[in-house]
Amino acid sequence: MIGGTRNWDYRYTWLRDAAFTVYAFLRIGFTAEAAGFVNWIQNCADLGPHAGKRLPVVFTIHGDSHLPEATLDHWEGYRQSKPVRIGNEAVEQYQNDIYGEVLDSLYLYNKYVSPIDYDFWVRIRTRLDWICKNWQSPDAGIWEMRNRQEHFVYSKVMNWVALDRGVRLADKRAFPANRERWIEERDRIYEEVMTRGWNGQRHAFTQHYGSEDLDASLLIMPLVFFLAPTDRRMLGTLRAILESPKRGGLVSDGLVYRYPPRERVDGLPGEEGTFNICSFWLVEALTRAGQAEPAMLDQARLLFEHMLGYANHLGLYAEQTSNQGEALGNFPQAFTHLALISAAFNLDRMLGSRKA
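^ thats the sequence. predicted structure below, dont judge the formating
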């Protein structure tokens, strides 16, 4: 919030965001721009693990991942928001989901833009073997928790995505690959998420194994084809998220919190607003669920139109929206606009097919 301590230096490229950018460019036909981002990923984010190390999650535009975090106590910050930080400690975190986003974008790039060459494939293959050994580890998750590591369900799902897209890419191109191992580990992840990630009492997938808390990142499950959008468990998760925070949900006036807005979840003081990317993920999840439940498609349209009202005069969004409707956090945030593009594309397609 404005005047609070949740201030981070965002002047970098997150590998996760870069991968989603490729997807968004492909959706609107910007293949040359998608190729440029894949070229950046290939040159700056070496997928081949060096001595078994994880891949950094944050880079400068030049591919540097040395970003020590420091505070500038002599600066007051915007509207007395302290501390002012430079650098980002997230670069030191283990965020195991990034491989799924990257492999999904590379699979789509190979399918719609240009074939991936063999040398790049060798690096991808090496990383997929690394994932098979490391997906069982807890991590800091997509929301970069600074107080702990957990077995976050979103991270497990994206590891499933990485192995699934690796298998598909190998099959499509007849690349040499450790298919049997990748498929075995992919299926192990799936079974584990469905047993340990599912909370039978809440009738929903929760933030991490053993948690009672919801997490809006799990709205992406049908978007990456982990679950059918009409699967009973996905519909249960959707309905749980749609409840107000007072009732254990994440939606307030049509806007979505990324997780319950309580201090104990992330260990940080102060409040935060709703997360705009999560609001657009909800629109798309409802859109896809509308195949079986038409009322959800109508709800998706209304929520999308509601969200459009929170853009500024240029149609741009910040990372968050406050309870008073103010733009908070990183502005303009690419992550939010990528989700907007995907939600708009799929909502338009679904509404068009219904009219037909």
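The mean pLDDT is 89.
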